[in-house]
Specification:
The chain is α+β, with helices and mostly antiparallel strands. The chain has 2 domains: 122 residues, Small protein B (Small Protein B, Chain: A, Beta Barrel); 31 residues. Helix content is 35%, strand content 35%. The strands form 2 sheets. Strands 1-8-9-2-7-5-4 form a 7-stranded antiparallel sheet. It has a two-stranded antiparallel ribbon with strand order 3-6.
Amino acid sequence: MKILAGNKRAYFDYDIQEKLEAGIVLTGAEVKSAKLKRVGLKGSYVIPSLTGEMTLINATISPYQVRNTPTDYDPRRPRKLLLKKKEISFLIGKGKQKGLTLVPLRMYTKHNLIKIEIGLGRGKKKFDKRAKIAKRETDRKINRALKGKGDEGLR
């Protein structure tokens, strides 16, 4: 398994409750570009379409060869996700609950196929984010202090 793109911002903005794996429909040039890690998942999300399919919105896949790219190529076009009917109905049911969002977490290869991991998350409040940043900084200070004392004791 080779990770092609990650969405670190999703873990900061959302409290991820469940994760699912889905296939993604891409063109040949998009597959080549994705395998070269020219993918951006920041700001993207997943929505159910009217036909009962799941669609990835706002994910960026840069053109494989800029000079040979078709004039009508859109790097942020909606892309269909491949899921089983049970998984789709489960996600639609969960998505109707207030505050739950479907967010792509990472894109990777699995047996030469490109897969995307979707997380079902609840948005964090601003004070939750601030508390997490404060905790991270205090942990960093503690580790620096412990590391500094350990070096002095060895000399």
